[in-house]
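queue> pop job 88
queue> type: inverse folding (structure -> sequence)
queue> payload:
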């Protein structure tokens, strides 16, 4: 009987061990493994502000454009009356150090004095769209996984905000006045594909933060070093609902933020260069790391 008990126990032990091995959860964090492995810094989640609307205004475009029909209220020259600029959006930075344009939740930031103001009016109801685009100084050059007509890697010019880290969510503060529109954040991944993130309705009054989560299937990294492939925020889009009227819309924006994983792997030998191109790519990765540090310390 004792021999049977010993044999049974010995047979169960490897079975239990195999169950533990196969049931163990996969470790989250970087898929790029170093010789020493990841420690507790394998994921570093932070909330970072990427645009404060303090220096340069964004530009605005509308769809549809100016209609052929003459507006109902015009002056003697046949143009819209002063203050009634249909289908021609007005956008600019608003606020001063004396009269700040910011939500009370951000009052702790003494450098936050301005916000982005937008005013527009459509003549006809329907699928009316206003897109806010970052300034030309935010131009980014991206090398795509495509070849141009010279059989060289295709380089694309993108106007947008380069979002740090692997982004989990994007948020922006909105000062609404009850307009029946929705807000979208358009982001482009490193492969050149554009993704539309729904942020919700702006049909409210007062300041309110709107947030969109970034789906996990949007590519933001690769399995080789440098690993992180940044998303670019290319535009914020206001889209009218079918129930929206044609009254004048006035709306303000402040503090675009991201909830992001800023961890990136480093390893012994990362400073060894294959050629000048390899050196340049790694230099860009180091500059990116400096930018992450600046964001973490509250820089804009």
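queue> result:
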């Amino acid at each position: 009987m004792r021999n049977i008990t010993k044999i049974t126990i010995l047979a169960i032990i490897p079975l239990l061990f195999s169950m533990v091995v196969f049931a163990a959860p996969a470790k989250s964090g970087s898929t790029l493994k170093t010789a020493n492995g990841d420690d507790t810094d394998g994921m570093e989640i932070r909330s970072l502000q990427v645009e404060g609307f303090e220096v340069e205004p964004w530009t605005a475009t509308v769809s549809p454009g100016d209609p052929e029909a003459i507006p109902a209220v015009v002056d003697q020259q046949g143009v819209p009356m002063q203050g009634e600029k249909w289908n021609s959006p007005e956008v600019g930075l608003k606020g001063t150090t004396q009269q700040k344009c910011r939500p009370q939740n951000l009052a702790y930031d003494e450098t936050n004095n301005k916000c982005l103001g937008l005013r527009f009016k459509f003549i006809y109801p329907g699928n009316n769209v206003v897109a806010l685009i970052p300034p030309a100084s935010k131009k980014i050059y991206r090398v795509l996984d495509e070849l141009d007509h010279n059989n060289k890697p295709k380089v694309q010019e993108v106007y947008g905000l380069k979002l740090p880290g692997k982004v989990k969510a994007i948020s922006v503060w909105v000062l609404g006045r009850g307009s029946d529109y929705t807000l979208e954040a358009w982001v482009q991944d490193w492969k050149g594909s554009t993704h539309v993130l729904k942020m919700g309705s702006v049909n409210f009054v007062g300041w309110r933060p709107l947030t969109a989560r970034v789906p996990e299937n949007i590519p933001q990294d690769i399995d080789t070093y440098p690993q992180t492939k940044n998303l670019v925020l290319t535009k914020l889009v206001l889209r009218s609902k079918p129930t929206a009227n044609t009254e004048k819309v006035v709306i303000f924006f402040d503090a675009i933020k991201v909830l992001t994983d800023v961890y990136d792997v480093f390893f012994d030998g990362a400073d060894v260069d294959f050629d000048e191109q390899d050196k340049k790519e790694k230099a860009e990765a180091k500059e990116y790391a400096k930018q992450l540090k600046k964001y973490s310390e509250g820089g804009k």
